[in-house]
Amino acid sequence: MRAxxxxxxxxxxxxxxxxxxxxxxxxxxxxxxxxxxxxQAPTMTAGPEIKGTITARHGDQMKVTAADGTSTVIAITDxxxxxxxxxxxxxxxxxxxxxxxxxxxxxxxxxxxxDGQPDANLVASQISFxxxxxxxxxxxxxxxxxxxxxxxxxxxxxRGRMGDIDKYNIKxxxxxHFDTGRADLSAQDKAQLCTTANTAQANDNxxxxxxxxxxxxxSDDVNQALSEKRAGKVINYLQQVxxxxxxxxxxxxxxxxADPAASNDTPEGKAQNRRVxxxxxxxxxxxxx
Length: 289
Hints:
The chain folds into two domains: 6-16 and 42-131, CATH 2.40.50.140; 163-283, CATH 3.30.1330.60. It is built from five helices and twelve strands. The protein is 31% helix and 26% strand.
């Protein structure tokens, strides 16, 4: 008897799953094919439950990556049940396999061959996920595609207009301040950041440069990391909430205690130095003044 390939084994498993869902396999269907090559379907048993995020799709296979970074390739078949629901006790509905988008968190019940082959692919018997996660994954996919198109066009336009991009006029600077050792944004700071972004959006040539600072409290290493963290918090808010495009952001930096706005000898001076400066810049080559 000729050994079957791993791929043929999966195909046979698909047939078994489909016929089982339809009510079983008849004695005639179980008969030996009229050939000298006998394809013997492997026995399928319950495999591990896989939880993670879809990180790749190719044809009838998907890769699911768990929180610890381990990845598992799982086959999707016509018999795979795909369900979306609002939560553990939410109602579920069948959805098409096209909904299995990259970035979607899923829980996958699997089947595996009982022949003991360690490299045999798992077959998904059921894939489930939350409706809210599907909406988020779809928004990311659509937004990414649109963002790439916008970024390409905008970058080319900026390159054409900014022959001397390393020399800028500073049109305005917005400072947001922090408590000692913290990188949290207050409600007032958040509103101020969006106001700055909305104003800058009116100038097609405007870019943002975000720089983080600290007071003299703490070691140099701690202050450097803290200044970078503060700058990162501001950038994330500008992009994720205020809608500022990443390609209109210059490389951020953390300056720790450099360039203090006031003396670090007083509590009032230190409070002024615990800041992130959001600078609105326009290249001198395109700025009218």
